[in-house]
Specification:
mainly beta, Jelly Rolls, seven-stranded antiparallel β-sheet, 15 strands, globular, binds calcium ion
Length: 232
Amino acid sequence: MRAAPLLLLVLCLGCYDFDALERCSDGTFLICEGFESSEIVPPVWDVTQNYATVRVVSDMHHRGERALHVSTLSTDQRIQGQIQRREDLTIGPEYYARAWVYVGAPVPTESVRMLSFNSMSTSEPIAAGANEGFLWIYNDAGGMNHPTADGLPVDRWFCLELHIREAVSGAIDLSLDGQPPKHVDDDTMPAGDVPFNRVTVGLSLLALTASIPSIDAWFDEIVIDDAPIGCD
Ligand SMILES: [Ca+2]
């Protein structure tokens, strides 16, 4: 290569939009959803919209050109704006999940679940979410609520990582933006010992006692794998 084209190539590296690169296209993860299709396609994902709308949008994204937008109504009812993938993940007993999440201000103070694993036969999940404005681990199989010291970020994309080791003496880790995780030793066996085989992404507010303002949140590049994923 002559000097001039090489110089152009080097200069061009500085102007290339690396954020536009879509990480799900190379197929290295067990499950990766970047929402680059213009719609959520059943039966890959089932959609639940109770007092909420769930749409793939092109005016907001972490990477690529699209993301998932969940918008809830102002209500005191049971809110579920979610997509769920139902299949045998066949990656147990240790799962890793990563999601890019953007929650619009103001900070929701109610209990909200955003990324959860469920079993086919039960709705009891292990979930990452927030409560009282802080990131939170829920584990219905074990110790229930495990708050973290991390405030729920709003008005910016953040990287949410969840690690589950399924066992009676199991463990859960929740990490924000690649920081050292909140670690919990807990019983993580699903009811009936049926392995987790569903993953759910979105907003779920199940125990409201009063009407709350609407919430807007976006999700992008949902990854499930049997190895640590990171925030790349
Ligand atoms: Ca995307």
